[in-house]
## 1
Amino acid sequence: MNLSLYWLSMIKHWLTSLFILALLSMMPLHSLAQIGGSYTYGFLSLTSSARSAALSGNLVAANGADLSLVRENPAYLVPEMGNQLSLSYVNYFSDINYGQAGYARSAGKLGTFSAQIFYINYGDFIEANEYGEITGSFQAAEYNLGISWGYQLDSTFSIGLSLKPIYSVFERYQSWGIAADAALLYRTSNKLFSAAIVARNLGTQISTYHNPTKEPIPFELLAGINYKIRHAPFNLSLSLLHLEKYNLDIIQPSDETDPATGEKLYKNNFEETALKALDHLGLGVEFVPGKAISFRFGYNFRRRSELKLGTRNSASGLSFGLGLRLKQFNLDYALANYHVAGVSHLLTLTTDLDDF
């Protein structure tokens, strides 16, 4: 064997082993982490890709070179994305909207790089004094600049890293932070199966809003698989969310009844285990009858369990989407159902600038 090829093979093996060891070692470090209102910069957990949102969100394993998914998994970055541009806009709830712009460039043997800007605008607020007298107005917004790198170790394994400076402002209160993502992606040579593991939002506040004590940021460990059924126009995806924490229930472990309704929470231990396990699960089905169009459906179990209304049926947890492959553009749309009070609309436009 050529000596240079031998050392290249050894370096790839070491990098893969290091990534697996680093990602797995993060689980016990964050096994006691809290979610849902006990951290700052919660906007980092939002999905900005319409394709991902339609397939239940957090699509960390997928087929194809889709730049809009790099924020979900930086290991998606491949040379085919070079000179691609992606724009996303989300009409969230009330006056809240957010979006993302991303651009990728191939650096040959050094890998593929991309830059993304992600923002969320919470709208205009009325400012008043302690007597209720209106004194003006103010805005609230948060920003995240991402620099991502993806590298193909061989024909099946890829790794990715993202560095994400954060700026948050609420009226006169400001905060700076820093976060990073690390990912490992496996794809079979026939492109029918892919699997990934992602450690997202490792970082800290650099400066706080007012309190001198720094708040945690929303770390999450995710995994996922995607399978393209051979000789059939279906892609099946499964996402495993918040693997760093088993119990995602907002109810305390000591509670035997729901504090809101007084109903018994679980009939038996098996039911309790099954429902808590399902809270980590997101499912998606993508139907691709041709090269020009695709239909997507998703179901997020945790969103359903937390936001459904017990008194009436609703579509909480369900998501739908459509993808159009035009001559020079890819256009994706998604509708995600959160609650009977409202839904979220997402739109993503991706293009290869070399086509112009």
Note: Residues 3-29 form the longest helix (27 residues).
## 2
Amino acid sequence: MVGRDLGERFPAKGRAPGKPVLEAREISGHGFRDASLTLRAGEILGLSGLVGAGRTELARALFGAAPISAGRILIDGEPVVLRSPADAIRKGVSYIAEDRRDGLFMPLSVRENIAFAAPEKHSRFGVLNSRKQAEQAWAFIGRLNVRTPHAEQPIAVLSGGNQQKCILARWLLKGVRVLILDEPTRGIDVGAKREIYALVDQLAREGIAVLLISSELPEILGMTDRVLVMSDGRITGEVEGDRATEESLLGLALPAHSIKQELHA
């Protein structure tokens, strides 16, 4: 349905999802209502829908960046209250925003951006060990193939793809269990997209639970094990990854009133 060979762009699937890590049970908040989902370890769960469907609002609530007014969020089967992103991070939940600039500190270096979320990894008794911090940054620069001449390079001068890798490196250094990606390849060139896809696939194979939000249907179809579709703030359906097509996802994404108008046209 996508008119191209997905295998040329996306990693082969065949991941083996494990136990549920993050669950939402009929949660409601600003921009969404009665949303339920289950995200398993080692799984890439897609969240699709049209712009304004409520996907980002739901993601922010799962990260503690927006309150819920009803329902429950569970981690490892236990109810949790996420009053802030700090609460979510302590539970192993991470989030890369739709606009990556929201997660970057442009005046700071690559090293400082990578190290930001995990001070406990390179400081003791409140004293920063800059040498250890640099070593850790370089380890992830190598692992994620971040193209930078040195760790002290201002992150503002890196390409969009390399900036996104630095944000991924930050969460990997922190040691997260859940990775929420909101439009992770927006504004990134084709080569960098393939690298991001390979990284996300590898993280899932290492047991990280990934929630992938994307407006690009080929990306959703090529990367995910299951797809949830949102429309008008509600989850309108779930499709297994091997059965998903552009047609099936768009059918679930169209607002009900639009479908009725088409039927009566």
Note: The chain is about 35% helix and 25% strand.
## 3
Amino acid sequence: MFYPLLRKCLFLLPPETAHQVSMKFLKGCCSISFIQRSIAHSFALQETSFCKIIFGLPFRNPVGLGAGFDKNALYLRELNSLGFGFLEIGTVTPLPQKGNEKPRLFRLPKDKALINRMGFNNDGVHIIKKRLENWKQQHGQDQNRMIIGGNIGKNKITANEQAWKDYEICFNDLFDVVDYFTVNVSSPNTPGLRELQEKNVLKNILENLQKINLAKETPKPILLKIAPDLSQEQLNDIIELAIEVNLAGLVISNTTISRDGLSTPMNELNKMGNGGLSGKPVQKKSTEMLQYFHDKTGGAIPLIASGGIFTGLDASEKFQKGASLVQVWTGFIYEGPTIVKKILKHLNKK
């Protein structure tokens, strides 16, 4: 009951500031061992029936946190304490970059949505790798640990013709410190990035990564995150490509550039400007895409559902339409730290 009041207070702050304040507060709490244990006891369910083996990895539960929330692997302990089954760090690029100018994150409370144009702001792969190495040293042998995915992208200054090199750098540097990779070519906030979703360009990137991957002693699952704004022809191309290069899975979906059907007035939207829309408005489209991919592949490719998941009912619908796992992000902002626990309790009743 406390979170609606806390949310009102946080929503008085600019979105990025609210994010930093809330996560630093949680980090401070978790730095005190007995408080951290209390948080984990309150929010992280230890029910073994939630465990799932997906693309060869043991997920303690199927509810994860999508990329963009903990871009720099700063809050692994804290998010682990809140019970997430998995977390994607990043999007990580080879070089550090500041991202787009502020303000670049906006709330749409009437639509239970966010608009962001962050622009892959992150500390760069080398610094993030060190943080993940420290995490792995402490938790690598824990059988009930949170799975870590590495969401990788290209730097803004890198031409699309050279993008494959950026993905290769991130893949090699993070290989030993993450459990799986998600290739991000679908953010609308890096100029030209979505052009990498075209079949031939994307094929070159993915084939290069798989070549490196298969030369390793123990290859890692490679997934692809796609946009909800693709045409049916593009969707079919990605299905064909996913099978051809033997992707471990797909993340469906990223944010949308559409503004259709919003309750937020147009004059407010114009003030916010460009960016990717996430939250409830993406739910229907991402679920339709999820079912399309599941039906077309006969369920042969594991799918992570992302887009508009706020409640256990939302998660159940995604699983019914073919998801193996689900990711929250905007729902976490609006629903608060109990979101994983509430979703899992709902799933446990079914």
Note: The radius of gyration is 19 Å.
